[in-house]
Amino acid sequence: SLVTAIGTEARALYNLGQAEGLTIWSPNVNIFRDPRWGRGQETPGEDPTTASKYAVAFVRGLQGSSPTVLQTSACCKHASAYDLEAWNGAIRYNFNARVTAQDMADTFNPPFKSCVEDGRASCVMCAYTTINGVPACASSDLLSRTFKGDWGLNGYVSSDCDAVALMHDAQFYRPSPEDTVAVALKAGLDLNCGNYTQVHGMAAVRQGRMTEQDVDRALRNLFAVRMRLGHFDGDPRGSALYGGLGAKDVCSPTHKNLALQAATSGIVLLKNDAGILPLRRGVVASAAVIGHNANDPGALNGNYFGPPCETTTPLQGLQGYVQNVRFLAGCDSAACGFAATGQAVGLAASSDYVFLFMGLSQAQEQEGLDRTSLLLPGKQQSLITAVANAAKRPVILVLLTGGPVDVTFAKVNPKIGAILWAGYPGQAGGLAIARVLFGDHNPSGRLPVTWYPEEFTKVPMTDMRMRADPATGYPGRSYRFYRGNAVYKFGYGLSYSKFSRQLVVSGTGNKAPNTNLLAGLAATPTADGGASYVVEEIGADGCEQLKFPAVVEVQNHGPLDGKHSVLMFLRWPNATGGRPVSQLIGFRTQHLKAGEKASLRFDVSPCEHFSRAREDGKKVIDGGSHFLRVGQDEHEISFES
């Protein structure tokens, strides 16, 4: 897999003496709570189920399969409820996030819990964020009771860089540097990124603010991870498991092919009016390629990246399919303060097909920088519209962005025939886009975030509430709770083929759900007159007995072979009492030839998938009806209460 390749290359570079260490501070599994967040591009999106599955795969890929020897050490960051850089005077270094126990339990913490419990991550990084008045890196509740106690972290807790210094200098949490270092280490911090603990730690011990035992605990955790990495076993090339990794394992043909696969799989087809795509190779006599993102290698990378093995820009990708290609950047940059609209219109009018490569860059979204608007910057929209009006046939718009953009103008304009979102697709991005445009890859990507309209920017970014509050007009956040209109919904994505899906819960060889199991348990009344059951009280054995399989029968009706992503959701009968509108509980992807059928099995665990968080953060299952949903197909499951 892709993350296995990352772990392999990291260890290979270390063996070659080209890496300073093996502790990799990745993945970022914060929830993409607000569409303006500059670092949302680093994350797997707004959904906790997706983020959790991504976290586990990422950690296992980096750390390797040995239970005792680490290939590298992965670190899940930034725990927790960190998703603001700088907005309207609020900055990440001293922002106090007011978060409910309910939102912590079912939105912000699940990816980190999965990282540790299922992925066996050897590190968790605490965030700059102050959560309900307590800096994350000074919270014994978070670091010791939750990470190390409840979840069983076998490894170390690191601070984000200079987070301990900021507790004193920006958050004024403790009166002296010595008190600050002591409160962090005693809370469970093992490593401070920066030099603050080195400078003030000895004085903190001498003043009795902390003990040598507090320091010893941190050292034990840090050196235990170093031992698991083999730091004290001599030349790393002598390692039985990883010593053979070297230059042949970096930028190998297999890994370069993986980069291409990842980029093509991540492309989402948002619009394809009248089936303008896919194009046929010999049919496009001439092409105009317009846009600042068309031939900028740096635009493919996003904000955290290693040096690419090789890079193919979108322009270069298209030149492999079309002989007569003319290029114009159109904008001076993604900010598009200046647009060469006249030139672009002339080029479009004299070309057979027009491809626009627009979107954002790190000048609009990155670490330390949030957006204030969801619209395309500067004169991009007017340039796109003018080009579309001048072109001989509907144009094709490709967006390179990390976060969502409001492109309602393009969605409703019939002169814009197709829209694709490619994210920041990495070194093979240009080739991946060309392969999708010309049908060598049938798109199967789905949006990992809701694409909100520009009016969402009226919502304060500092309001951490996930759940809607209709009484005050607060619309809620993410597909799970948002009550407003969306430009494109979470999970949306088109294909060149037509697929059908049918959900089957019980049948030949399938165990039917045991819906009577909860009837003998003590129920807690809910505010709407129903009953709920605390998951902890159901117990491990009871939760195991509740599990059942659900099968989705999928068929590709053609015309092209391709992958299909099946998303299974849970819907409650009503979204009152803090219940989500719906919740993704699983996803599977299957490649099907045209005309082929397949049965995809989902293992449903009601304790995990049917539970919701109460206001106190406790997970409960409601008595009564629940609905499994795949597409428009629903199946009711009712628990006796």
Explain what the structure shows.
There is one protein chain. The chain is of the alpha/beta class and 641 residues long. It folds into three domains: 2-248, TIM Barrel, CATH 3.20.20; 251-445, Glycoside hydrolase family 3 C-terminal domain (Rossmann fold); 497-639, Immunoglobulins (Immunoglobulin-like, Sandwich). The protein is 28% helix and 20% strand. The protein has 18 helices and 27 strands. It has a six-stranded mixed beta sheet. Strand 12, helix 11 (314-319) and strand 13 (324-328) form a beta-alpha-beta unit. Helix 2 (48-63) packs parallel to helix 4, helix 7 (177-187) packs across helix 8 (196-206) and helix 10 (253-266) packs across helix 15 (429-437). The chain is globular and about 80 Å long. The model has no long low-confidence stretch (mean pLDDT 95).
Question: Short description, anyone?
Answer:
The protein is of the alpha/beta class. Helix content is 28%, strand content 20%.
